[in-house]
Sequence to fold (92 residues):
Amino acid sequence: MADRNKSLSNNPAKSISAKPFLNAKPLEIDASFIVKLAKRLGGSISAERLSTESRLSLEEAKKKLEALHQQGLLDIDIEEVSATGKIIYRVV
Fold:
């Protein structure tokens, strides 16, 4: 069995290279991404959900959502804030 595994690891056709992933650009979390994600989630999103769905920290997610709110792209859903205690942003 060890000989079989050794032959597979030496076979270039069977090996997997991580090199293509090393040069991959990181996912850009911009306004377009956030609005599309919110729409996909039914039109609303919280910082917690944005953080979970992206590589952003919770603090970064909060800042991005607040910036989009200031730009008029997102509104705060007051009813949801009252019910859950979390700030929920809705796509305008």
Q: What stands out?
A: Helices lie at 2-10, 19-22, 31-40, 47-53, 58-70, 78-84. The mean pLDDT is 82. Residues 48 and 58 are 6 Å apart (CA to CA).
